Amino acid sequence: MMNDKMNDLGRMIPPVASPEARARALSLAMQAFDEAENTSATTQGTDRHRRQSSIINRLWSPVMNRKFLAGSALATLLVVPAAAFLTLQLTRDGLPVDTTGQQIEVAGKDALKDAKTKELLSAKPDVSAEKPLLPDASGRMAADADAQSSVDAVVSESEVDTLGKKAEAGEAADADAAMPGIVAEGAAGIARNRQAAPSPVVGAEALVGGTVMRTMPSTMPGDIVIPQEENRDRFTSADTNPVKSVATDPVSTFSADVDTASYSFVRKSLMAGQMPDPDSVRVEEMINYFPYNWPGPDSKDEPFKATVTVLPTPWNAGTRLMHVGIKGYDVAATTAPRANLVFLIDVSGSMDEPDKLPLLKGAFRLLVEKLKPEDTVSIVTYAGNAGTVLEPTAIKDKAKILAAIDTLQPGGSTAGAQGLEAAYDLAERAFVKGGVNRIMLATDGDFNVGPSSDDELKTMIETKRKSGIFLSVLGFGRGNYNDALMQTLAQNGNGTATYIDTMAEAQKSLVEEAGSSLFPIAKDVKFQVEFNPQQVAEYRLIGYETRALKREDFNNDKVDAGDIGSGHRVTAIYEITPKGSPAVLNDDLRYGTAPVAQQAEPAEKSGELGFLKIRYKKPDSNTSNLITTPVTEANAVPTLQQAGQDIRFSLAVAAFGQKLRGTDAVSAYAYGSILDLAAGARGEDPYGYRGEFLNLVRLARSLGGE
Description:
Immunoglobulin-like; five-stranded antiparallel β-sheet
């Protein structure tokens, strides 16, 4: 029997190779020769965590050990050439290649089709027809038809065992059935090696047939390089506040900022193993993310109270810090006004990600559970065209509201401006006089249909807010997040900007802090500090770069500023340089102002370090009120340890934010020092926010190579 087969094989005439095959073989040989010449000095082994010989053993052993192949010359003749071909591919490129010339790594053991395995081994790449993988509407890398067929050709490791069992049972197994098992074992082995020791080269990921496929640029000369997925996150670029001389610029003016979006985005970046974009770091939002126990006002007649502390700077021995903590009046839930809320939800194609629309739906479900029975909710969606999903509905009909949220599905482009108009129309129809009328926009920020410039949208929001309808923004996702636009909308809509990256963040922002998010106690809140040149030579405001105001804006009631909600906490920190300190950076002026000693200064003010002024309007008023606080040595503590835990922890957050932004003032202050400062001021931490912060500092220290 065996001799007959051998004789038959000996009489077979090999087929004549086509001109195309000859040309391709010659090209491959030339490329292999050039590559061998270029790498002739390379040491043995591979950087892919396993020597190539071990991969060949993994391909060879499972097949040759099967009973149906043991001692079979026919099997040897069939398998050896195939194994040699696969060895050439592995040696040359490191991984099996698909028909587009791209290397494929299989992460996982999901069974795929074996019918096209021969295509993987015999396909002739047509360079002229090659198409790179491009991102689809959701931002993932999607394969074209040719690449998909190559992916389908990879078979699972389990099929090797299936073939072996059939052979042991005496069933016939021809060469075509044996070959998929070889490929599967090789691919699965490589996948296991990758999982055990990930390669430093990370490519784009696509979910194909339930298996994560990671495409990587081929090392073959002349191959088309796959474009990396574009990161289209957009942030407002603002230079870090400079050190200013009190002699020439003694007054600092800025708007309140109670947003927390920056902290959540920084956290998501670090948890993904990436240092955040410096422009995404707004130090004041990171500081204000945490609850602090600043003393609050006694009544709502004066909506907030300021607490000022002067203390040594932990990162600069030649300066001091002026720490200002503001606590807003906390409105009791039983006395909170009725709420008329419109959920304006982005359901465009870009929202089809696990951390976008599904997370958004869960967040709004939490908020609905928090509202009172007499409050109303409406839902407007936008994708291509705006549509009303739910007319104004009382919370007592909660099941109807939750069912409407559950029906939301992604798809289409993003008619953001059109959606805003529809949302404002609904809010006006259900307007509650004396209550809370607010649109809650939930999106990744991609407004690409209709009026899309920031200025046009800003004008729309400014016009609508005069009617008493405010706008808050909930941001979701990465890679397409338009933070710059979200800030513009929230700031001009008398609302807040929050970034939701987890359900825990949704719980914090929409449930635990619902009062401060929904119920304003003061609007157009502005701060102004005048420093005494007899005591202070220089100052630097930490954060608030995007909230800076002109000096004259402070007393101009037409100038918009930030709002403060029920129980909100606002923290502002100045680094000040005392007169005569060796840390002074600016020289005295040769010309211009008279020396400080010659300036007339009332005796009762000479001991002041500065003078704090806060201007605000009540929610239903267009006329501002003024609160003033002098800052003296009576506000000072001699050592850092004598400051309260909340102050010290806020300073650790301030240092961390500045370091992430690349601020020169803290360049020498190590992450380890920040960690020690925060750990020593962690306190009770009932919700674990501060413990999470410690972990973020550790991540940044590791990623930064400290």
